[in-house]
């Protein structure tokens, strides 16, 4: 059945819930800077995630753990300056919310005040319930994140599919219901079996956005630099590359180098 798409002048947390109700899928991509965010917003993406994947993509770290709250605020404020329509969700980085709910609230307030982002995302379930409640009580919208939670990579040991075993799947289902109950406006499910993700999406009324979680959820998120093929060494099964910018940019840059060396650039029309 094709779904009549309602136009949203600005996407809000309420519009996302409405999209789920209307059966309209939600598109979400990461962005970490002004120029990319302008393109992502202009192309009609519903949600822009200023992900802590900036730690890998922008800074070249092996994990998401090193990125700081100040760095996240810098990236998020650059993104917010570019936005006309998308909802901007900002990751709370590792170490900014795990120790206690007061610290979590302080970090979330800094993100909202200093970057102008519209919501925050935190990784985890019952272990961070009190922190999420504290942030929600301050009127800050929260997106949950379950399944593969990269900030816990050293606990998991690998980036393989999570919740394949019944016990972990049951805990994930419980956590999703809890996140909905306490007031999260959406949940990201990362790298879990498609069947489980669909079951979770059907069990809650808030949108469930998947990455490596199949097509039975309410929306999809990808890391922009992977999706446009700027990165090329990361090749998980769930990733669809829409461009090969790594190749195109490498060719263009090599050509520029040749043109400079051969004095082809600049030509008569490219000077004053
Ligand atoms: O940081 C990030 O980019 C994310 C997405 C992978 C969901 O959390």
How much of the sequence lies in strands comes to 5-15%
Which shape, going by the Cα principal axes? globular
Can you list the ligands bound to this structure? 3-methyl-2-oxobutanoic acid
Mean pLDDT: 96
Figure out the total of helices. 11
Helix content: 40-55%
Order of helices and strands: HEHEHHEHEHEHHEHEEHH
What strand line-up does the widest sheet have? 1-2-3-4-5-6-7-8
Tell me the count of domains.
2
Separation, N- and C-terminal Cα atoms: 58 Å
Radius of gyration from CA coordinates: 20 Å
Counting helices, strands and paired strands, the structural category is alpha/beta
How is this structure best summarized?
By secondary structure, the chain is an alpha/beta fold. It is built from 11 helices and 8 strands.
Structural description of this entry:
- There is one protein chain.
- With about 270 residues, this protein is α/β, with parallel strands linked by helices.
- It folds into 2 domains: about 15-240, TIM Barrel; about 245-270.
- About 40% of the residues lie in helices and about 15% in strands.
- The chain has an 8-stranded parallel barrel, surrounded by 7 helices.
- Helix 4 (about 70-80) packs parallel to helix 5, helix 5 crosses helix 6 and helix 8 (about 165-180) packs parallel to helix 9 (about 195-205).
- 3-methyl-2-oxobutanoic acid binds next to strand 6.
């Amino acid at each position: 059945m094709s779904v009549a798409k309602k136009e949203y002048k600005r996407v809000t947390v309420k519009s996302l819930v409405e999209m789920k109700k209307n059966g309209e899928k939600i598109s979400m991509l990461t962005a970490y800077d002004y120029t990319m965010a302008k393109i992502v917003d202009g192309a009609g993406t519903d949600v822009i995630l200023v992900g802590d994947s900036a730690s890998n993509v922008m800074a070249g770290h092996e994990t998401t753990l090193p990125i700081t709250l100040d760095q996240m605020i810098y990236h998020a404020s650059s993104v917010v300056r570019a936005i006309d329509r998308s909802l901007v969700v900002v990751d709370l980085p590792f170490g900014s919310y795990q120790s206690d709910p007061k610290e979590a609230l302080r970090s979330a307030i800094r993100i909202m005040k200093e970057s102008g982002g519209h919501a925050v995302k935190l990784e985890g379930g019952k272990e961070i319930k009190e922190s999420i409640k504290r942030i929600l009580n301050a009127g800050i919208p929260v997106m949950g994140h379950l399944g593969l939670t990269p900030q816990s990579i050293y606990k998991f040991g690998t980036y393989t599919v999570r919740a394949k075993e019944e016990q972990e799947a049951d805990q994930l289902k419980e956590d999703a219901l809890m996140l909905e109950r306490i007031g999260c406006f959406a949940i990201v499910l990362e790298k879990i079996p498609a069947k489980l993700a669909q079951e979770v999406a059907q069990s809650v009324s808030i949108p469930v956005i998947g990455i490596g979680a199949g097509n039975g959820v309410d929306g999809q998120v990808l890391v922009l630099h992977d999706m446009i093929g700027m990165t090329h060494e990361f090749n998980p099964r769930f990733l669809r590359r829409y461009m090969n910018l790594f190749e195109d940019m490498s060719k263009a840059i090599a050509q520029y180098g040749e043109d400079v060396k051969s004095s082809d650039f600049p030509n008569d029309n490219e000077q004053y």
